[in-house]
Specification:
Layout: H1 3-17, H2 21-39, H3 49-72, H4 76-90, H5 99-115, H6 124-135, H7 141-153
Helix pairs in contact: 1-2, 2-3, 2-4, 3-4, 5-6, 5-7, 6-7
Length: about 150
């Protein structure tokens, strides 16, 4: 078992012992999503810590989107629970980059793409190819894409 998955399991056991309903239900759903990912495809496999992190990030993103939908629908209690679950899952992810850090990485990538001959809004794909490996797991793709569009537009 990977170390991150083992940590999730140990934290789940502790949450159950402490009768922490929010933590235990959130961790149960996350471990289920990890297990589902492990058995997807033709053969069962063990996920690496990076793959487990991607599943946790996907689950956290689902919580943020659900909280936003509940807020728009006027269901504040459900929105608060989804936000709390998202915060709980964020603790298992690497620290997210700030907007300034993302802008700095994107600016360097734009210069690199311009040196390779890509310019203007059509350079979006080339810049994203350079940026994505540098920010993987540390920034939401939407935030990165917005920064790239802003810098390419001038």
């Amino acid at each position: 078992m990977t170390t991150l998955k083992a940590k999730l399991q140990a934290d789940l056991n502790a949450a159950i012992r402490e009768r922490d309903e929010l933590r235990s239900s959130t961790l149960r759903l996350t471990i289920t999503a990890i297990t589902k990912e492990e058995v997807a495809g033709k053969t069962k496999r063990e996920l690496s810590d990076d793959e487990v992190q991607k599943v946790i990030a996907k689950e956290a993103k689902k919580r943020r989107e659900a909280a936003e939908a509940f807020t728009q629908g006027g269901r504040t209690e459900s929105a608060e629970r989804e936000k709390a679950e998202g915060v709980l899952l964020d603790a298992y992810l690497p620290k997210q980059l700030s907007d300034e850090e993302i802008d700095g990485i994107v600016a360097a990538a734009v210069e690199e793409a311009k040196a390779a001959g890509a310019e203007g809004p059509r350079a979006m794909g080339a810049v994203m190819k350079i940026v994505n490996p540098k920010v993987a797991g540390q920034a939401d793709g939407g935030r990165v894409a917005a920064s790239v569009k802003k810098l390419l537009a001038g």
